[in-house]
Structure of Transmembrane protein 184C:
Amino acid sequence: MCNETCANFISRWKLWIRPLFIATYALAALVFVPLFLVKSLEDGFNRHDQEVLIGGIFVGVAIPISLWEIIQHVIHYNQPKLQKHIIRILWMVPIYAGNAWLGLTYPKASVYVDSVRECYEAYVIYNFMKFLLNYLNNEMDLEANLELKPQVKHFFPLCCLPDWEMGREFVHICKHGILQYTVIRPLTTVISFICKVFDVYGDGQFKGNVAFPYLITVNNISQFIAMYCLVMFYKASLAELQPMKPLPKFLCIKAVVFFSFFQGVVIAFLVYTGAISSSEPDADGLSLSTRLQDFLICIEMCLAAIAHHYSFSFQPYVRPGTRQQSCCSAFLAMWDISDVHRDIQEHIGIVRSSISRRIRGRSMYSIPRGTDEFSNLVSPRGGQSVPASFYQSEYDDFVVNYGTVTSSQPVQIHNTDPGPKPI
């Protein structure tokens, strides 16, 4: 009888999870805030303690809002192809806020915690791209729809670039223009971490003998390309995206990811030039710029959590009376990053193939359709019939499909070069 009562109580967890969540958080606040105040008063409650307290208040408001929205999406997990990416985007606020507060509290550990935030920036951009693509592909044949649209022109000052042909080429360029940031950002983060270990990074120093200005330049260029591709894709698909109110979502992503990055660069430059200085005699430029950035992010994440609550709300996915997916499977699906692995593998293969073709002077070829994320990147020819979605150039020795590669279907390349033709 007791086991049945417990099982029934657990099965109705959706009814008591909200009051439990609120009570637990309130209890934690009532315990840790007084302890922190007592410790700060013992130390004299200096400026660092004040920054930690104020930043902690904003973080304490931001994290529950985001976690509650995540829980609601997990409960009403009715559209996995869309909500999986929304949940990943919503995790941005807790990760950014917690990361910034830890860096503010423990400045010496900021080198390690900042690396997590920098890598998650690229992950958020990737998931936003997948969210848009999945939404549009659920409603229509995206490539065919774009082929019927008027040509989208480049923005100033890039209006001199050749137009991206509407349809397959346009989707391909936008997708891989965003994917390159997903690859480059973690790579530069690893390089910067190694440079910090060997004391050659020079954080906040715009000098030629340190790595900081070079890595900042690479990140700026990569981020600009990703942002430009997002804007171009938004411009081309604005009418189709209107039902899901895309503008607030675009502003949330760009404000959090891109603005926070450029904000850090501007702060580092102002501190380096002396435009911003500290009255504390033992504060160097590095600690000052890092503290300012972390403190501002703590405040900004509170605003971002409120914006995400309205922009990525769970309400459109509530389906009363429908059989919902179990919350456990929804939670596990949220952490399944096999789609990221497939798309990055595809992107690296495309870049490698493009470089190889340019080195060998091969002619350009048309870009086939391959929006299905479970299709192969490379398909063997070898006397077999080639599906319509594949393209074979008369100069190519393999067949390319711009889908992605599943782990169960290995990439195979069959050489079909017949050798030199007889004279």
About this structure: The longest helix spans residues 13-42. Residues 25 and 145 are 48 Å apart (CA to CA). Confidence is low (pLDDT under 50) at residues 363-417, 419-423.
